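Record 1 of the preview.
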Amino acid sequence: MQYFGCVSTWFAFDRNIALYGCGGRYEGLFSILYYLSLMLLNTFVAEKYKKFLAKCILLCGAFQAIYAICQCYNWCNVKQYYHKFSYIDDVSHKLVKGKKLWVLGLTNNPNFFGTYMLLCLSYSLGLFIDNKKAISGVVYSLCIALFMFALLICNTASAAVGLIFVMLFILVYVVKNKLFIKFFAITAILSSITLLAFTQGKTTLLNDIGKVGSEATEIAKGNMDDSYGTSRMYIWKATVKIIPQHLWHGVGVDSFHKAFGGTALTKKTETKTLLYDKAHNEYLQILITQGIFALIAYLLLYGYAVFRGLKRSFKYNEVYLFLPVLGYLVQAFFNISVIEVAPLFFMTLGLCCGKVDNKCGEKSKLKQVILTYGTFDLLHYGHIRLLERAKKMGDYLIVAVSTDEFNELKGKKAFYDYETRKKMVEALSCVDLVIPEKCWEQKVEDIKKYKVDVIAMGSDWKDSEKFECLKDYCKVSYLDRTEGISTSKIKELIDN
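->
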């Protein structure tokens, strides 16, 4: 990508802007190098630190969201100044466009603030779904409420469309993993916050989404009016016409304002002339400014990130890194990349695409996890053979060894106590982790806690309801027992 950016810069209308960008929202070649460096560095972040970075992003976003709410309600004498586009009401100091209230946090545009809040909200939703602790669940619930309210009051339709796709993905995910309670909790929070913002007159997004739906219907019918998407349709149609002229190397990194014969795209109205310096579609922006090969490189990168994210989600039950990637990529169809938000997105890309280590005794979250249960008293060849075959079914083998108390409940008496049996099983090279089996009911919780893919048991447990019921949560496999040897036979020989 950087190579194609260099080529584009060489052929740029204005090499200074292509290299360094220029005030406000322009991003030069060095900005892109900065983004890609952030992404590369974050691919090396250890798994145990990824959630810490995600929480840091949420903490920074929370300050932005709180500041925006203060803007919305004019608390703490926080006022909005947005003279650049004449959206300021000098009497009330409220940011308005027509009859719409807009807030922008600490950014310089409500659209950019909306993208920032969408990233934070998506992270919060993912962490809430992945979370197993009650206290953390409360904290993430509050984050969802905060960022949802901030997203609503910025009145940015592109962020709302991104959120819709995030919620659709969450719906598919919770149905597959039977996390209906969490989905209902999320829906309740989002609905309550939306109702609050709407009844207080702080958002018009519901009307905007309806308008977007109507316009999408008209587009499907072939009616592409220039006014659709706040004149985005006009920008896109004009941009598509000049693609053949700049197909191979573009007009220069982030130099859309030079694409139309060295000047920006304009549109005359009855009262004024509007000037457009961005394509308001990141993919179209890359194509016209950096060329077709750069766009292909970006799409390959994004495609790989989506692949990794889907793998994390559906195979390894982890969504907190994929949701912000999905939300951003969807809203990018209607928005632009700016240096205020893009670094956070590329950090997330790096975290999502990065490899997963298995250091510090932690189980890798991207492994095929096998779990088996048993007493494993008087450890013998039959036990070892079963465990070795179970390990071959995946990458990480967890053995749940029955405690002495649980054996007593089952009416069994082990020759060795729990700690001794645990140490013997831990000594086997095929075993990665040993945990205590304390009761029959713990199995579902074990599956969720350790993200188990397969339960492997001896064939004598086949058709037992105690394990058949677990098929709703993971795969259950039964392995043939080794003929001619068992713990009970060894005890008989010892007794005799």
